[in-house]
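User: Second chain of the day. Same drill as before.
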Amino acid sequence: MPNEDHNQNDLNNELDEFQDEINENSEQYDAIEDIEISKEMRDSFLDYSMSVIVQRALPDVRDGMKPVHRRILYAMSRLNMTPGSAHKKSARIVGDVIGKYHPHGDTAVYEAMVRMAQDFSYRYPLVDGHGNFGSLDGDGAAAMRYTEARMSKISMEMVADLNKETVDFIENYDGDDVEPVVLPSRIPNLLVNGAMGIAVGMATNIPTHNLSETVKAIKAVMDDPDVSVPELMEYLPGPDFPTGGIIIGRKGIRDAYETGKGSIMLRAKYRVEDMGNGKKRIIYYEIPYGVNKMKMYEKMAEVVRDKLVQGVVYLNDESNREGVRIVMELKKDVQEEVIINQMFRLTPLQTTFGINMLALENGRPKQLSLKNIIVDYILHQEDVIIRRTKYELRKAQERLHIVKGLLIALDNLDELITMIRQSHDEEPILIGHMNERFGLDEIQSKAILAMQIRRLSGLEREKIENEFESLNAAIADYQDILANKERVLGIIRENLDDIAEKYGDARKTDIIEGSYDVLDEDLIPEENIILTLTDSGYIKAQQLDTYHTQNRGGKGIRSISLNEEDSIDRMITLSNHDFVLLFTNLGRVYRLKGYQFPLGSRTSKGMPIVNLLPLQENEKVTELHAYNDSSKAESLLFITSQGIVKRTPIQEFYNINRNGKIAITLNEGDQLAFVKSTLGDEEIVIAGDNGKAIRFKETEVRQMSRTASGVRGFDTAGGHVVGAATSSEGNMIFALSENGYGKQSLLDSYRLTSRGKKGVRTLNVTGKTGALVALKAVTGDEDALIATQNGQIIRVHLHNISVLGRNTQGVRVVKPNENDKVYRVTLVDHEEQDSAGDLPENLKEELPVLEGELVPEIEETTEIPEVEKEKDPA
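Assistant: Same format as last time:
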């Protein structure tokens, strides 16, 4: 119990003492204020962000340096680590910087110093490094205890006249020392070495430039303050990166120079070497600025390995201390321009450099144009020169004051010596007597007493008088400089010429005109191709001149190697620069360029189309349609196997993406048969396998959206549509049966009617002719490429095919082999080639002996009475 009472008494005493403290400091507690936490957070964050912006991330427009870089150079200059001295350990420099000026991590300071020493980061390195300071492959520098450094020669220009009161000094972070607010910077460092930095809510990315060109641009602004950016670009055409490379185009440069923001495209430099035997190799020897070479090489190897770029047989990085060298060997007869362009597009061999010229101007972040940066540099140099001149003027005046005293002493030397002997070493008394007797002040008297007697002899008089005269001349010159701005600008020009002569060099980065977005087609010669699609989905492109004209009745040459039970399904001709719309049985559409299809040999099978398009399950390409920018088509007319038609503006198909879009909504069991481009006032002809065809005006079908189903255009009578034509394609109708019987008829012989009818006879279908397989509108001057199910193709000039009545059987146009049938027909421009004797040797052997005479033979052309007029469908 006594212990409990004792504890309670202690607690009561402590509470009384605490209450007494509260009473004594009541005024202090009353001063506590309630604040809003959101406002405090906002204000604190703004203070922090401004501290980061000003003290760490953004360079000063005057010397182009962030505080850490400025402190590194200042510390090295005070440690006397100049170009003429020995290299010193980097750790010593870093320790001095963080101990006196930069209260942050040693890693940040060392990394900044390393970058200043890298000749692939700085256009003109400010630190002369000794040891491993990193590489283009992204290798880091060795630890600072292993490397050594000193100031480079050009960095001495950054600190020139620093001890002549040219800039302001402030106390360091602990008040034990001082540091410069900005360096005098005789070189325009912000432009020549650029800057990169990320602050809070803002960033800067200023490219490097050539010193000689920058000097010319600065002098141009000094000569004409109203000079325009295009005129400045005649002196400073664009950035000049330490790694060289190529800049594509000048628009991005001009945007950046005018507004402070812009984007430029950088490319690696390369050369193409001939290895003989039709093989070539590409040597990349300069890479874009800021690109990690090792990662770039890995990406190049990846696109080659994944066959995104085809035709490369060897790739190796052979870079060494002499420079970059990446070797890429190509297959025989590969178009190197296409490979080069694909590598640019798929790898960091081509990269974008975003210019953002943000810097501190008067202590505030500001977006600066090229002219702003140059003007700020000139103003800084004016200030430096004026302050240096004032300093030198003051020093000259102080020295002149002393020299005047020395001259007085020389005039009274004997009396002065006597006075000194009688002073008994009592300096204050002696100075007083000297001042009274000779009119000297204390400074002059002390200077006289500090000199040796021999210098006050008559032998030194001439030197002192010469110094007096030179000081007077120097003072007059300094005063003239301060009174005349043109003198100041003249000194700046002299300084610029001096540094350009000492450190200027040739440009490393080339600037070429043109667009950096070069498409493969810009590098591929334009030529006509034939695109062949098989029933099982194999597609390939071939040069059109592979097939030469034969007379009718010929058997043709093999165009494609087919698997068993496969056959040619679609075949069109186009330029390899044309767009191809690929329509599928599901009513979808995809789009590719002609050159994107594999170019195969005459007998190759081609590539599965599923490797080119992301087809859905059970989806099959059934129609190909080519167009280009010069096409005058207004609409696309869709015809299905069941005779449904739809007309849609062609503009709805200009922006088809890789995943495809809906082209037509199909009825159950129907599929897309044909797609025709129309001009808006066409006449349409549609034919069925039963040999009948209908002719009606395009305007019978109204314009519909891309996803619409359409309306009935032709009554197939239980069959299916096998042909479609438009009046703009020609005034003749070419019809062909599966057994090779065909003819030409006048378009006007087909009765013009309304859509939805059963039509009239277009070819007399019999067991001998077989079903109708194709109907085309022609002019009669074309060649017909006729394909059979087994892959045979014959090219026949339509001039050799008779013009007969609409309801005739026709003539033998092509004679398929046994168990083979005509399957597809496509039209191409006529080629002047009439016999096998004009064919290349490799094709002569494959041409069979032509069947029959070379004169057209009409078979069973007896007229058949026209069927009765059909009733309109319900």
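Residues 834-874 have pLDDT under 50 and may be disordered.

User: Great, on to the next one.
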